[in-house]
């Protein structure tokens, strides 16, 4: 019988993109004449504790003293934090609903702002472990409960010792207090979460560096919103593409490499390719980029990219023949949309297909040569595997057919193998 698994998740800079006490300070001290200096002190205390250079208890005491906060400030903070949930956590809300008994939020932060945020994701209130504030009768925060083990140095270790959980425990966090759980032997593995911040001293101690929650779910073979973590998709940017174009793709979570030339070592692994205006890719090199799914060109690609070869290889191309200055935003967004939802809207070489995401379904993409009978073969395979089709869309041009199928049935991997083996298949992938 398989051992039960528990997922011990940090809150600040992990479940949310920010450090909540730092954000609370910006709310409570907004009109303070020395606010910038105080913000800096609070951030410094946060970082020193997260890097293990200052005891957590000392850091917490100093930060609370500096806050000058009250319950009205807390209400504003909660509203703010609900908009700052880490993207990879928010898109995997279904995981938390399914594993509500197994997920624990363990944080040195405070229940007063943590509970309203994580409760939206089906996390049980009894599974939220954090500090609590002490307030005066008029709602002013003056202290915190010093009897709570999470207010002390090594507090997470002390708490888990008290809980005595039995099974495989996985810790996900960004700071030293999260690593201490691994060091103590209380958890099986420590995953350093770097979607929001990467602390080098913590990365060196981690069992696994996880740039997103999708990555954590993927390596542990757990249900997830997207089939393949975006941080594992290599996006190569060539030439002077401009920082804004790079940031659009980086913000979406892809693994970015910015290079002056298309280096040989990247050819076989690149999944996305963004080229600055004036850059060129040799046909022979392009033919060996077998994992390449989409190519963006910040200008007119004619004569610089072999569009026919791209089409034959199932590579969706987005370029801007008119060299509109907006292309530094437009082209990378089109590339990201294709990778995220299969949308080929305004592609230079593919049939245009634009679809909304369907919740609680799996989206499969099948690119094939435009010959008769392919869709019949695809649907025969779905029927053999008892697959329930929610929606299916096919667009063609003289060269290729582009089919998207949404299914809401659990599937086995043999289904994929069968779809890939269909004659005239060019590319097949699962989006989510």
From TrEMBL:
Keywords: Amino-acid biosynthesis, Hydrolase, Magnesium, Metal-binding, Serine biosynthesis. GO terms for biological process: L-serine biosynthetic process. Residues 363-432 form the ACT domain. Gene3D superfamilies: 3.30.70.260, HAD superfamily/HAD-like (3.40.50.1000), NAD(P)-binding Rossmann-like Domain (3.40.50.720), Phosphoserine phosphatase, domain 2 (1.10.150.210). It holds the Pfam family 2-Hacid_dh. Its cofactor is Mg(2+). GO terms for molecular function: L-phosphoserine phosphatase activity; magnesium ion binding; NAD binding; oxidoreductase activity, acting on the CH-OH group of donors, NAD or NADP as acceptor. It catalyses: O-phospho-D-serine + H2O = D-serine + phosphate; (R)-2-hydroxyglutarate + NAD(+) = 2-oxoglutarate + NADH + H(+); O-phospho-L-serine + H2O = L-serine + phosphate. Pathway: Amino-acid biosynthesis; L-serine biosynthesis; L-serine from 3-phospho-D-glycerate: step 3/3. It comes from the Bacteria. NCBIfam families: HAD-SF-IB (TIGR01488). This is D-3-phosphoglycerate dehydrogenase. It comes from Pedobacter yulinensis.
């Amino acid at each position: 019988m398989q051992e039960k698994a528990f997922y011990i998740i940090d809150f600040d800079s992990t479940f949310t993109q920010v450090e909540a006490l730092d954000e609370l300070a910006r709310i409570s001290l907004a009109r303070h004449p020395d606010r910038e200096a105080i913000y800096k002190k609070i951030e410094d205390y946060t970082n020193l504790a997260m890097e293990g250079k200052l005891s957590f208890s000392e850091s917490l005491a100093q930060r609370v003293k500096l806050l000058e906060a009250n319950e009205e400030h807390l209400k504003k903070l909660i509203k703010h934090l609900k908009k700052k949930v880490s993207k990879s956590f928010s898109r995997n809300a279904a995981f938390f609903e399914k594993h509500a008994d197994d997920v624990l939020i363990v944080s040195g932060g405070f229940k007063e702002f943590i509970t309203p945020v994580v409760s939206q994701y089906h996390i049980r209130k009894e599974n939220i472990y954090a500090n609590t504030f002490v307030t005066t009768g008029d709602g002013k925060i003056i202290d915190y409960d010093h009897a709570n083990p999470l207010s002390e140095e090594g507090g997470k270790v002390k708490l888990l010792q008290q809980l005595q959980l039995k099974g495989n425990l996985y810790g996900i966090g960004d700071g030293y207090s999260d690593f201490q759980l691994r060091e103590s032997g209380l958890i099986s593995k420590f995953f350093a979460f770097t979607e929001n911040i990467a602390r080098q001293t913590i990365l060196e101690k981690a069992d696994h560096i996880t740039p997103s929650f999708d990555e954590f779910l993927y390596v542990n073979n757990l249900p997830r919103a997207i089939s393949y973590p975006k941080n594992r998709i290599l996006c190569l940017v060539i030439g002077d593409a401009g920082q804004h174009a790079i940031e659009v793709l980086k913000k979406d979570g892809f693994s970015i490499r910015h290079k002056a030339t298309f280096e040989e070592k990247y050819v076989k692994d690149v999944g996305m390719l963004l080229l600055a205006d004036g850059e060129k890719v040799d046909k022979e090199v392009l033919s060996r980029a077998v994992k390449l799914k989409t190519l963006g060109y910040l200008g007119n690609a004619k004569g610089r990219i072999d569009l026919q070869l791209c089409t034959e290889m199932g590579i969706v191309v987005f370029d801007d023949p008119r060299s509109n200055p907006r292309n530094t935003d437009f082209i990378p967004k089109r590339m990201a949309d294709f990778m995220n939802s299969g949308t080929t809207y305004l592609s230079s070489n593919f049939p245009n297909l634009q679809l909304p995401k369907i919740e609680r379904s799996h989206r499969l993409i099948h690119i094939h040569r435009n010959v008769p009978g392919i869709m019949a073969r695809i649907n025969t395979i779905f029927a053999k595997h008892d697959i329930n089709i929610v929606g299916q869309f096919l667009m063609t041009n003289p060269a290729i057919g582009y089919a998207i199928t949404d299914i809401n049935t659990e599937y086995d991997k043999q289904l994929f193998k069968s779809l890939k083996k269909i004659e005239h298949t060019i590319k097949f992938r699962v989006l989510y």
